[in-house]
Amino acid sequence: MAPLSAYLVLSTTLFCLGVYGVLTRRNAVAILLAIELILNAANINLVAFGRLGPAPAAGAQIFALFIIALAACEAVVGLAIILAIYRTAKTVLADQVHLLKG
Amino acid sequence: MVVLSAGVVLAGVATVSLRNLFHAALSLGLVLVGTAGLFLTLEAEFLAWTQLLIYVGAVLTLIVFAIMLTSGMGQGTLASASAHRARSAAVVALFWLVTVGGFSQISWPAASTTSPYTVPVLGQELLTTYLLPFEVISVVLLAAMVGAIVIGLAHVKGRATDPAGLPAAPGAAQAGAPRSGAD
Q1: Residue A84 at interface with chain B, using a CB cutoff of 8 Å
Q2: Total number of domains constituting chain B
Q3: B30-69 pLDDT, tens per residue?
Q4: Do B13 and A17 count as a contact with CB atoms less than 8 A apart?
Q5: Could you tell me the CATH number of the domain that includes residue A19?
Q6: Which B positions 72-91 lie with beta carbon below 8 A of chain A?
Q7: A58 to B122: CB separation less than 8 angstroms, yes or no
Q8: pTM of the predicted model as reported, rounded to 2 decimal places
Q9: Which domain holds residue A69?
Q10: Which residues of A touch B47 (CB under 8 A)?
C-alpha cells in the first residue's frame, strides 16, 4: 500500500486543480464541475487518514459518505438554480448574470 | 496506485482546462471513477461502490442534463476564460508548494496492516455512534429535493415573479386563480 504522503500529494493536487477551475471558469456548470473536484480531494484525504493515519477510525469513511450525500444535494440545488438563472437571464456565464445590478 | 493517480490528475487537468463543456464533464467522470479505484486501494470498498453509484451514476448524469439544457451538446464550447488565468495559476501553484512542502516534513507513524472497518462495522457505527448526523443528512436530502422541485416548478406555473409566500389580497387571489388553473 502506498504511503500516506502519496495520497496527500494527490489530494492537494486535485484540490488545487479545483480551485483553479473555480477561479478561471466563467460557465456556472463548469464551476460546479470544479467544486466536485474539490469535494473529491477532501474525500481522498479523509479516507487516506482514516486508513493510514496515526489514529485510524471508522468515522473517516462515514464522514466521506456524508460528504458524498452533501455533494449530491449541492449538485441538485446548484443545477436547479443554474437552470432558473438560464431561464431568467438567458445565460449561464457567471460574470454576465447581473440581475441585482441597478 | 501510481497509474491510477496519474490518470486522476490528468483527467482533473482536462476537467478544468477543456474548452468543450461536455468533454470536461466526461473527464470529471474519469476523475470520479479513478477516485473510486483509490478508495479500493485504501480498502474502503463500500465507499468505492457508493462513489460509483451516486457520483458517476447520479451526479454526473445530472450535470450532463444541465449541460444539454443550457448550452447544448454540440455547441458546448466555453467562452474564453477570464483574463486573470495566469494570476490564478500562480496563486494555486504557491498554495500547492506551501502545502506539499509543509507535510513532506512530517514523518507519519506506520499504519496498521489490516483495516478493521468492514461493511458490517460501518453500518453498526452509522446506526449507533453516528445516528444523529445520519438522520440530519436525510432531512437535508429531503430539503434539497423539495427545494430543487420548487425552483424547477416556479416557471411551469408562470409564477416565477409572484411572492409565493405572501398572502395575496382577495381581489388578487380571484384574479390569479383562473390564470394558474389555465396554466
Answers
A1: yes
A2: 2
A3: 999 999 999 999 888 899 999 999 999 999 999 988 888 8
A4: yes
A5: 1.10.287.3510
A6: 78-79, 81-82, 84-85, 88-89, 91
A7: yes
A8: 0.82
A9: 4-89
A10: 43, 47, 61, 64-65, 68
Within-domain flag for B88: no
Q: Is position B155 within any domain?
A: yes
Helices A28-52, B21-41: crossing angle, 10 deg rounding = 10
- Owning domain of residue B15: 1-76
Q: Do A59 and B129 touch (CB under 8 A)?
A: yes
What gap in Å lies between CA A80 and CA B147, rounded to an integer?
A: 9
Residue B173 lies in a domain: no
Enter the ipTM. 0.89
For chains A and B, CB pairs below 8 A equal 230
Residue A96 lies in a domain: no
Whether B90 maps to a domain, the answer reads: no
Query: Considering CB atoms only, which of A5, A58, A77 is closest to B144?
Result: A77
Residue A62 covered by a domain: yes
Q: Which residues have a Cβ under 8 Å from the Cβ of B172 and sit 6 or more positions away?
A: none
- Report, in angstroms and rounded to the nearest whole number, the Rg of chain B calculated over CA atoms: 24
